[in-house]
Write a structure and sequence with these properties.
This protein is an alpha/beta fold. It contains seven helices and nine strands; from the N terminus they run E-H-E-E-E-H-H-E-H-E-E-H-E-H-E-H. The chain has a single domain (5-212), classed as 3-Layer(aba) Sandwich (Rossmann fold), CATH 3.40.50. The strands form two sheets. A seven-stranded parallel beta sheet has the order 3-2-1-4-5-6-9, sandwiched between helices.
């Protein structure tokens, strides 16, 4: 019989983060969920505890078994490359380190297609540098999801609709059968890919969009 798991989640208000939260709430093997957020989040379940935190000065976390990192923004929303990096790199890494200190053995990250520390594109380079930083930490298991363009209702979350994302999703419907890793992927499928792999993860694994469509 598996022991009930206690998990932490950062980024619960995003497209993928809210689906991860939904999946964790529905998982009978999860006994407690600690949501880390900069502002109030609707927990909606007795096993969810919301912690309002400053990601630049995180407090010690309660004991946890695994952590899900889904913090993310855009340079346009953040206002500058430095502000973007503070969220996508610094905050996610800070949560990972705090999770390790709280006993976490496994982690799941929402990254992005094209992530590479050697990329000439700032966005992809930042994502790749975060992946490398997480791989250098002593997690027993790390699952990195690299979705292509996310399909989901940003307006319902009060998030700005990303024009380029909409164009890419439309194009991917045509090109998707030829290039499965470039098909737009539902946020729920990204969440499911992490939720099914992280609890038993050993070593480091990268999951591309093509594999997310099949769960």
């Amino acid at each position: 019989m598996h022991m009930p798991r206690t998990v932490a989640l950062a980024g619960a208000t995003g497209l993928v983060g809210r689906e991860i939260l939904r999946g964790l709430v529905a998982d009978p093997g999860v006994s407690a969920i600690h949501v880390l957020a900069r502002r109030a989040v609707a927990g909606g379940d007795a096993k969810v505890t919301v912690h309002i935190v400053d990601f630049a000065a995180l407090p010690a976390l309660p004991r946890i078994d695994e952590v899900y990192l889904a913090l993310g923004t855009t340079i346009k929303v953040a206002g500058s490359q430095a502000a973007f990096r503070a969220v996508d790199f610094d905050a996610n890494l800070a949560v990972a380190r705090a999770a390790l200190a709280a006993g976490a053995k496994r982690a799941g990250l929402v990254s992005a297609m094209g992530a590479s520390a050697r990329s000439g594109i700032f966005y992809n380079r930042t994502k790749g540098e975060l992946e490398d930083a997480l791989r250098a930490l002593p997690f027993e298991g790390l699952v990195i999801a690299r979705p292509s363009f996310l399909a989901g209702n940003r307006e319902a979350l009060g998030q700005p609709v990303r024009r380029g994302e909409g164009i890419a999703i439309a194009a991917s419907r045509i090109l998707g059968p030829l290039f499965p890793n470039y098909r737009s992927v539902p946020a729920a499928a990204v969440a499911r890919a992490l939720l099914t792999r992280v609890p038993a993860a050993a070593g480091s694994e990268i999951v591309l969009s093509g594999a997310m469509h099949s769960g």
